[in-house]
Design a protein that fits this description.
The complex is a heterodimer of chains A (112) and B (114). Chain A has 112 residues and is mainly β. Chain A is built from no helices and ten strands. By secondary structure, chain B is mainly beta. Chain B is 0% helix and 50% strand. The chains are: A mainly beta (112), B mainly beta (114). At the A-B interface, β4, β8 and β9 of A face β4, β5, β9 and β10 of B.
Chain lengths: 112, 114
């Protein structure tokens, strides 16, 4: 059922940029890409989303390739508190309703 | 604003029993979705409620059922529990505005079936 593939884990040095890749090669034209993160089995927390254009907010940047088959989440200056599982999600629209398809996520380990 | 709340936090049940989990959405939200997250895996969509009706459903058997109340809160019921139903059950609420849609997740209910 998953529409995204992500590496299972990544390491990043504190203060450096963390670049988390995601493949969503079967995405359709009206399906958004979302990123959430989950810390210590708490509820997932929203980070950012996009459709075609690159997006930036106070937490992160989202770079989507022109063919929309992949994207990269960028945390510009990773801190130890950014250690979490990061999920790349495709939002599928069905009529007026939406469904989130989660992948298996990437465990980001930020190291001092 | 309390955000999305879920109860109970933890629950232990025996195989064959039935369980009810509860969710109160974030203020202003009218849509509730339920997810099952097995250990080490991403959340899997169970179903979604809007205007007190199930609107979408994932690949889960009929043992999983739900309800939404007029105040938008929701329940997830699981009958004839199996060991494989042990998981973190997450509730997410939203207000469906196209292009601005965002789900807010609760802290989850940890269900253990023995």
């Amino acid at each position: 059922d998953a529409k995204t593939t992500q590496p299972p884990s990544m390491d990043c040095a504190e203060g450096r940029a963390a670049n988390l890749p995601c493949n969503h090669s079967t995405i359709s034209g009206n399906e958004y890409v979302y990123w959430y993160r989950q810390i210590h089995s708490q509820g997932p927390q929203y980070i950012i989303h996009g459709l075609k254009n690159n997006e930036t907010n106070e937490m992160a940047s989202l770079i989507i390739t022109e063919d929309r088959k992949s994207s990269t989440l960028i945390l510009p200056h990773a801190t130890l508190r950014d250690t979490a599982v990061y999920y790349c999600i495709v939002r599928v629209v069905s009529g007026n309703f939406n469904k989130f398809y989660f992948g298996s996520g990437t465990k980001l380990n930020v190291k001092p | 604003d309390a955000g999305v709340t879920q109860s109970p936090t933890h629950l232990i049940k025996t195989r064959g029993q039935q369980v009810t989990l509860r969710c109160s959405p974030k203020s202003g939200h009218d849509t509730v979705s339920w997810y099952q997250q097995a250990l080490g895996q991403g959340p899997q969509f169970i179903f979604q409620y809007y205007e007190e009706e199930e609107r979408q459903r994932g690949n889960f058997p009929d043992r999983f059922s739900g309800h939404q109340f007029p105040n938008y809160s929701s329940e997830l019921n699981v009958n004839a529990l199996l060991l494989g139903d042990s998981a973190l059950y997450l509730c997410a609420s939203s207000s469906g505005v196209m292009g601005l849609y965002e789900q807010y997740f609760g802290p989850g209910t940890r269900l253990t079936v023995t």
